[in-house]
Amino acid sequence: NSREMELVLPRRVTLDYLDIWRAYDNGSQYAERLNTPAVNVLAISLAIVLNASEAAGIAETLLYLYWLERYDVTFSLPPTRSALEPGDIIVVVAVLGDIRTPALTAITYYRRRPAGTASATTRRRSMLQRHWAKKGRQPNRG
Question: What are phi and psi of 9, to 5 degrees?
């Protein structure tokens, strides 16, 4: 496992959107993490119609997803999984029954190990996503 340095993660996420309550004029909401030495600001512009509270919720969710996914996890794959590619979503069931669904970010194939053996790298998915899945809902949907 490895961890991305705090200084490269965003301190603030600003979300620009079309505000339904302001006659589709541009709106802007942000979320900021104050307890970090990071100084980066990530600006995202969406061409969708939202109200201010929806946009603020999306900004906060994105900010904390970046922070929660700062860990890389590497594990071995058997030859039967050689068709997997970066970007594929997999299901990982942990010893205690904890289910995670990370997207693969890299796959390395080895020649000197048993034929077809590979290692895969992924980012940890957030606790928020598992929380929403347990409640049977999606982020910002109620």
Answer: -85, 155
With b for 16 or more beta-carbon neighbours within 10 A and e for fewer, the 83-117 pattern comes to eeeeeeeeeeeeeeeeebebebeebeeeeeeeeeb
The residue among 62, 73, 70, 72 whose CA lies nearest residue 7 is: 70
Q: Which residue has 């997207």 as its token pair? A: 103
DSSP H or E run through 105: strand 104-109
Q: CA 35, 39, 40, 42 torsion: positive or negative?
A: positive
Residues 64-116 have pLDDT tens digits of 888 877 777 777 878 788 788 888 887 777 666 666 677 777 888 776 656 55
Q: What is the pTM of this model?
A: 0.64
Tokens of 118: 């590979």
The type of residue at 61 is: T
